[in-house]
Amino acid sequence: MAELEQRGERTPAPTAWEYASAPESREIVKLEERYGLFVGGEFIAPRSDEYYTTINPATEEPLAELPQAGPEDVAFAVEAARDAFANGWSAAAPAERAKYLYRIARILQERSREFAVLESLNGGKPIRESRDVDLPLAAAHFFYYAGWADKLEYAFPHRRPQPLGVAGQIIPWNFPLLMLAWKIAPALAAGNTVVLKPAETTPLTALLFCDVLRQAELPPGVVNIVTGDGATGAALVKSDVDKIAFTGSTEVGKAIQRELAGTGKKLTLELGGKAANIIFDDCALDQAVEGIVNGIYFNQGHVCCAGSRLLVQESIYEPLIEKLKRRLKTLRVGDPLDKNTDLGAINSRQQLEKIEELVAAGKEEGAEIYQPPCRLPEKGYWFVPTVFTNVAQSYRIAQEEIFGPVLSVLTFRTPDEAVEKANNTPYGLSAGVWTEKGSRILWMAQRLEAGVIWANTYNRFDPASPFGGYKESGFGREGGRHGLEPYLEFAEVSGG
């Protein structure tokens, strides 16, 4: 029931709302006790004979045992992909490849509820986000690249596009299925075969995706999935692949780049970020507050392009912070499978400890912390949505990627100062600008060192729009026509 406040003779106004739980059923998901490696169109036992356990981060409950693929397992998967590439897939008619991508997209739509529940179960993100964001976007990417599969000569005129061969792909734990779609869809559309390694903590939707491939009757070996920790990823980087696509931390991205230097293998990297969300005094303030919340607390802040630095024009600083704190009090932290939940569980104990360490550093350096009253579950990995004010640019919380629900607030007076502060970071993945002036949006976009810039919105994605960064946020683009190019090589066509 809502608590009511009597205001004179008027109808009582609600001051707080309590939501009844609305849990999504787990019954739609059927898990195996132990999984194998998906190689050559079937699940096989790992030659390493090693396994590890993946858990539900909201309860710490074990979910399944997964293979720890060793170098021999990875080499076998690459060999299967190479055979599939040479024996039919690369020579298949582009329209035939498109049919498989369309099938995969439709099956993902048909099984979207099953995938959404498993994504939240294994990753900790709220079911609303898995259901309304991750699954529709994943299916949309397959639909989009199915459309390009037989039009590559139009995408790249006066150049003869050819597939590279075998693509090794390593994806992170924050958007497991969506990152799989970002990687696999353009690779297959371009005529390549794939060996993909999902994140160690969130492999289950990738393994369920193998059943989608079976339903779609994709030829064996075109997509192979190997599970394991960083050692498996390192083995994939060193294996006989023609390209590596990696999404993850900047530190690991640098190590991969050093490993591949001089090998001739193609590489794309989508790495960390420390995005500035810039609020001008002429913005729609309430709309901006919603954009701030979406920018940093979406997926518990486990987003590489999260708006983790809030730059507020001084003249509106106080009213904006007041509105933001009031909004934070309404956020619901809890069971990821509850449809009312706004913030789910932190993905792992290791990530929770990193968040806690950086938040402690922010306090020690002198920033002022605000956390709304919040009762956290006793089991699992949780963190209260947090705002730091009185933050200096030199503070670690303003420089390092926290990858959690923690916002650092800084101020500025002029657009030039906003640009200078926004660009004062080694990263360059994304940014947000909030203002009613279109000319100011364009002026800022020309000067911000970021691959993606949102205007009066945040965290909006579309398969047709390329995504990627500058500086230590990586290189290469995923999405759009640009996302096809890293999976192709070109021969120039001489004009008559």
In terms of topology, how is this protein built?
Elements: E1 3-5, E2 13-16, E3 37-39, E4 42-44, E5 51-56, E6 61-67, H1 71-89, H2 94-110, H3 112-123, H4 127-148, H5 152-155, E7 159-163, E8 166-170, H6 176-189, E9 193-197, H7 204-216, E10 223-225, H8 230-238, E11 243-247, H9 250-260, E12 266-270, E13 276-279, H10 285-297, E14 309-313, H11 317-328, H12 349-365, E15 368-370, E16 386-389, H13 396-399, E17 406-412, H14 415-422, E18 427-428, E19 430-434, H15 438-447, E20 452-455, E21 470-471, E22 474-475, E23 488-492
CATH fold title of the largest domain? Aldehyde Dehydrogenase, Chain A, domain 1
Give the overall form.
globular
CATH superfamily of the largest domain: Aldehyde Dehydrogenase, Chain A, domain 1
- Give the biggest sheet: 7 strands, mixed
β-strand number: 23
Polypeptide structure, described:
This protein is α/β, with parallel strands linked by helices and 496 residues long. The protein folds into two domains: 37-271 and 473-492, 3-Layer(aba) Sandwich (Aldehyde Dehydrogenase, Chain A, domain 1), CATH 3.40.605; 276-462, Aldehyde Dehydrogenase, Chain A, domain 2 (3-Layer(aba) Sandwich). Helix content is 37%, strand content 20%. It has helices at 71-89, 94-110, 112-123, 127-148, 152-155, 176-189, 204-216, 230-238, 250-260, 285-297, 317-328, 349-365, 396-399, 415-422, 438-447, and strands at 3-5, 13-16, 37-39, 42-44, 51-56, 61-67, 159-163, 166-170, 193-197, 223-225, 243-247, 266-270, 276-279, 309-313, 368-370, 386-389, 406-412, 427-428, 430-434, 452-455, 470-471, 474-475, 488-492. Strands 15-16-17-14-13-19-20 form a seven-stranded mixed sheet, sandwiched between helices. Strand 1 and strand 2 (13-16) form a beta hairpin. Helix 2 packs antiparallel against helix 4 (127-148) and helix 2 packs across helix 7. The protein is globular, with a radius of gyration of 23 Å. The relative contact order is 0.13.
